[in-house]
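Continuing from the previous page of notes. For each protein in this section, the sequence appears first, followed by its structure tokens. Read the first protein now.
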Amino acid sequence: MGRDHFLTHRIHFTEILYDAMLKCFSLFLFVLMPTSSLVFSQGEDSLKVSAQNPSPMVDYTRIHRRITQTSFKGIDFFINTVLPKPIEVFVPSRSIKARSIDLLIHFHGASFVVKYAAERYRGRLAATSINLGVGSKAYGDAFKDSAKFSMLLDSIIAGVVRNVGHRITVRKIILSSFSAGYGAIRQIISNPLWYKKVDAILLLDGIHASYIPEGKVLSQGGKIDSAALDVFKEYARDASHHDSNKKFLITHSEIFPGTFASTTEATDYILQKLGMRRCPILEWGPLGMQGLSIARSNHFGVLGFAGNTGPDHIDHLHALFHFLNVLMTL
């Protein structure tokens, strides 16, 4: 298949056995398909500690294909009563008659990207898009009230039932986020009730923590404020067990914010605490992404990709359709 063919028809997930001492169990092989090159911009993540240093890097070497904003067949409606900004819910046409569906709740990123992913999901799915502003704090603060996520779920399910015209059962609750959206997921699963009930988590180039002392990078003797990562570490530990019913996938670029821990550093911290190591790879990823590393233990996986520029960051959002299916095969 030529390089101009990009993944949508199928995703190859091939396990290759590495050295058992390294505990690297699998390797993803990506088959790519053509998509258009719509330019899409997204605000960078920021934490309350300090602003991110702007990257001086400019990329002229990698392909950055984009999902086209178009119409999607299905039911589309909004919920305006739960969060400060409207929530968009989409039920693809092939899922409308389903009595049992999975529910995807995605934080941060254009809704048409989420709809595209919902149409290509390997199963029956309803998808929700939530955008609350810039920075992880905006997302975390929205769910400080422990009852807020329960209200959100009830509203989504009631809205789906009302629009499809029949009762439904939610099989799996899947939370995904891009960039700053991880703040919502961190806050939600910090509640023991929802930690238990959330079945799968996908973090797309968004998992950060402060440095201690503030702004002092690791190479200068700083440390990572692990408190911001502990709940993700525990979820990863649970997912890494063979008999776990949880799934967890993290993807990250090589972007280095400078004033707070990068996605690479935050992920490295979790891998270290779980006694896991990365395997180096050189693989084509979705939409022209270039895979550099992989780590996996049962239902927990990490995929590292090349790039230290804005377009490299946005790649992860537009590849939601791909990584969502990879997550559910873990």
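Done with the first. The second protein uses the same format. Note its length before scrolling.
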Amino acid sequence: MTLEAILAKLSHVKKQRDGSFFALCPAHNDHQPSLHITEAGDRKLLLKCQAGCDTETICQALNITLADLFIESGGFAPLKEKQIVATYDYLDELGQLLFQVVRYEPKSFSQRHKDKQGEWAWNIKGVRQILYHLADILTATETIYFVEGEKDADLLWQWGQVATTSPGGANNWKLELATPLAGKRVVIIPDKDTAGYNYARAVANSLIGKAKELKCIILPGEKVKDVSDWLEQGGDVADLDKLEQDISALFLIEKPSYRLDAESITWVKDITGSELTFKAQAIQQERTGVHARLTIELANNPLAWSLLNIERSEDRVRLANQAATKISENRNYTKEDLRADLDLFCLGLWDFQL
């Protein structure tokens, strides 16, 4: 990918005297440019966030892959030109276009909306985010299948089922997106990988006690990752109801067991013989969402803390990344595990914010 193409995806880009660049980091709520972009000697771009966001998270926020950081010149074979293979419209209750998700081949995604001049702006900053097929979801009286990705949702619609998903992929679930599903019968079908299960658990946590009925389906088959795979390998939508399980089947990792006192809410989790503690203080509802002071400790030693909006996935990812750098690599506990546990902890805090 070219340097110019990556810079075009960023905001407030400023060139430095040494030829490098600073820009707003897309992986967290950045107000002062903290993302440093420079070229390494091996013709690869280096993305360094001074707030602690890792390169993988930054690439996800930009809808690019790590391979895209190799510059298309100077002896490197150019990467295959990306082609738009599908677009998915997110329409509001009245059928008005709010934004669009664009799918490319090789597989990657971007989001765009129409600006005041009617031109495509390649971001959805400040744009209301909604569920896919929102109008149909609001009026649905039958089972709603919740899947990961617009392709799988549309495929189920083609087979006569009601289905939805949320924009931005597995790391971008927002609590407010659960509202249209309240009082509905919802069956969650996760992608069968770590990110897919974490995403499904986040959705489930938002709907427990709110949905009329909540079930899940773990698709059978060792080579089946998602609904598309299952149908391509002979799955029949008529069998979906037979595959339904209690929602507890999703929670393959420990659910938070909250401890409450006068000043904080904590969850203490054992990881390889040490206590990892998530602590929330000063929880309050503000105009932009639920805010709190979150601290992550290991064996009573602080790893990281932040004042943040617990509903913002980028804020949670940044805090988890900062804490993960201080956990010994020989522990059987990864950065992805920490992110998932922090997500679970924050989602449960929603019930305490009143």
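What the second structure shows: Confidence is low (pLDDT under 50) at residues 73-79. The chain has four domains: 3-69, 80-128, 140-250, 259-352. We return to this in next week's lecture.
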